[in-house]
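seq as requested:
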Amino acid sequence: MNSALASSDWQLARQSLLLLALVLALFGSGRSLQAQKPDRDLIRAEKLYAIGQYHAAIPYYERSLQQAYDAVNCARLAGCYRQQGAYLLAEHWYKQAVLADALAPEYFKQYAEVLRSNGKADLALEWFERYDRYAGNKGAHEAAYALAVEEAIFPQEYRVALLNVNTTFSEIAPVAYQGDLVFASNRGGGNAEGHSPQNGAPYYDLYITPLDENEQTSPPARIRGAIHSAWHDVGFSPDPVTGDLWFARTSSNGGKRVRDGQGVVHTALYTAHWKREKLNGVKRFSKISRQYTAAHPTLTPDGLRLFFSADLPDGYGAMDIWYCDRTDQNGPYAWSDPVNAGSRINTPGDEVFPFAPRLDRLYLASDGHPGLGGLDIFQVDFSGGSWEAVRHLPAPVNSPRDDFGVYVRNNQGFFASDRIGGMGGDDLYAFERISVRAGVYVLNLESGQPISGARVEWITDGHNNRQTTTDARGFAFVDLPPGVDYYFNIQKSGFNELAFTETRNKELFTVALKPLVEPSASPDPGKVSAPNGVDLSGNDPNAQVRYRIRIGVYRKPNMEKLGPLEDIGPLFSVPGANNVSSFYVGPFLNAEDAHEALIRVRELRFTDAFVEEWVP
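struct tokens:
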């Protein structure tokens, strides 16, 4: 009996233990399910962020971060605010993000850019340097800070003024047209449908206002006609050939926005007819797929080349400058396929808002070239069949914030900026050039090294001559009145004198002086390997003087790095002792061609390359 009771108690106890285990298991499972419940706010935020709807993503990121701290989500929320131009809020959230030990270095760079936009240049430099160390490119951002210091030394080149057409919303993309100023604004009141999910502001419409002789404006009015859509309409570029107007708008078809496979809505290029102050007959430019973003169209003065910015494949960065050439086939509406403007213009960053006032000059906005912060305005000239190095327009045209959308006419023009001191958002400014900073870079023709202490005499029509001396880097600059013709003469003891009489309105020149002392005899170049069986060995007794660019000496050459040099000229090597080879680009028939090529070689980061005279 006692044994039976004991057995019964054991069975009861066993059942109780099993029930308790089941309850604990269910409770634990419930807690686990609760812990693993997906963060729906974060899922929604990431989807919106991925398709560029930054304003719409903000409340979802904020609700997610109220539940749990996450460094990446803080950084992405900061990026959303940065896209809105809310730089102080962006700084706050980047500051929260960088508290984490493990954070992708790209966010250090973004934090630095926001700090610089907020006027905290010294702190920004610290974070730029931290990013550069992680990226393995120490000192990469020092050039931008050196640029600001260098530009501050020289007299002010430009004078700027805020236009009276601005509102607390945004005004961008100014263009002077037939005595009027045309621009885009999101001040609202048009056909626009709601607000943009990218920045939460109304969509852009086109406005027009008369300009008087002093570039002053009257109250603007919306341009009439079919140009107005329910979404963005931005840009206004006249076509000299057809008389049409080019602009960009949200890509749509049948009154509905067109999305790509990821749900992203892009902008596309369009043309329209201008008649009686109306724009009608809207047509999409079909050379660019709706799957990509294209914007900011501008044509050269002859109407034969169309520049624009786009995120087409095989570019250098997010947005690049591209162009299409007008062809003779099928009349004035036939265009070539898009061509990338190349690495001298485009960078891994964004290049946008091109403007071509001349056949040999292009203006653009970029955040990839060294500048003062955000998008800056640059000028680049076309000479000798290629683009030269870009030139940064100094303050006050550029600022630590975004500066873009420049229009230039006779040393005057307009641009847009979200700099501190405006009406709000992006504002329009007028500018006038009051001084031209011309410069010359002087090299030794034989060694390719810069020459310091060379005397440069600048001669201008109707003005006194000016004299400057090249610095340790071989540069000399002078400030001249805008719109005057000039030329210069260079003298240096031990070198032939050189005079430049064809400046062609350029502002920066590279020249090479030939030493008066005869060069020593070149060593036996040995056997040279060259493409297509061309004899570059230097053994031809009847050969004349040629020039080549010495790249460097390599035991194990990196052909992937050397390969781009072949776009400049034939790349060949001269074998030496101990399996070491000297690499060259050339030959060139004259020194001028060689030194023009040398500039391109150094842009590829072969900074020790130099030109040498060569007698085959």
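Residues 26 and 32 are 10 Å apart (CA to CA).
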